[in-house]
Amino acid sequence: MACVVSCDLPTLEAINLSWNSIGACIPMLTLCRWPQLESLNLSRNQVDGAGMQQLVDGYWPLLISLDLSSNSIPTSAVGALRVANWPLLEKLDLQGCCHRGADCMPGDDESQARLQAFEDLSQCRWRNLRYLNLARCNLNRACMQRLCQGQWPNLCHLDLTANCLAENSVEHLVDSQWLQLQHLKLTICQVDTVGISHLVRAQWPLLTSLGLSGNAIKAEALYILIQGRWPLLTDIDLSNNNLGSGPILTLANGHHLPLQQGRNVITPPAWLLTSWPRLNLMNLSYCAHGIDLVDFDF
Q1: Nearest-angstrom CA–CA distance, 42 and 30
Q2: pLDDT for 247 beyond 80
Q3: How confident is residue 250, by pLDDT bands cut at 50, 70 and 90?
Q4: Helical (H) or strand (E) element with 4
Q5: Phi, psi for residue 196 in degrees, rounded to 5
Q6: Which of 17, 66, 122, 254 suits 157 as a labelling partner, its CA being 20 to 30 A distant?
Q7: What is the C-alpha separation between 169 and 189, in angstroms, rounded?
Q8: Contact 246, 222 (CB under 8 A)
Q9: Which residues make Cβ contacts (< 8 Å) with residue 258, sequence separation at least 6?
Q10: What is the pLDDT of residues 82-96, one digit of tens each?
């Protein structure tokens, strides 16, 4: 690492430093003379809270992409990004980074430090931000309320996989100003009927992909979901939800019945295409006992 940071590389635009156990040498990294740097990958290292505080001192005015996924950054340190001078940032990956720090005791899911961190993150002035990955970041309802205040008008890809977004958490997402969303992943987020009721209110005219696998979506929630008006939606993942065979039979519209164990190819009803006219992929695998995979033949 020392040989890298000692180099003067005025034309360097991208560097991948993943899997290097980088932690203590973050201060040296911020002294690098890389004025043209656009992409920095520090995933799967040992960046911690102190390292995060030091990283934001890096003067990389052209930075577009920053990958910090799978580091040991406590949630309370995420707010340090607020002071970073990266006005052109388009992609930020914090997947699996937001760990419980000393500020958050067991059972204290809404510690003031964690809430302040996401409020600080929401105040980052990244007008060009398009991709944000916060999968496995210990987000809950109160954190979502603060995060969704972010003024990121160009955000089009948001991954919230494996966060606790039960009940009214989805409401804050729907009420955000992220009207350009195209790809949204809410996989394993404990989204239930209440969450789906909020989700269908979303005004996302450009939404093309929606991931809802592994949630608490039951039959009644599916019928509510179909009311969502997303004219450009092309694929939706509802696998591993406890839908039961009833909704699937309804969607089959009487064709190719009864469904067989294993793979089934069925024709969707016309009313489904009224809601989502461009839909070409709907994953309903492992949603009903004995039905392993259901494909729609569009």
Answers
A1: 13
A2: no
A3: low
A4: helix 2-5
A5: -65, -35
A6: 17
A7: 10
A8: no
A9: none
A10: 999 999 999 999 999
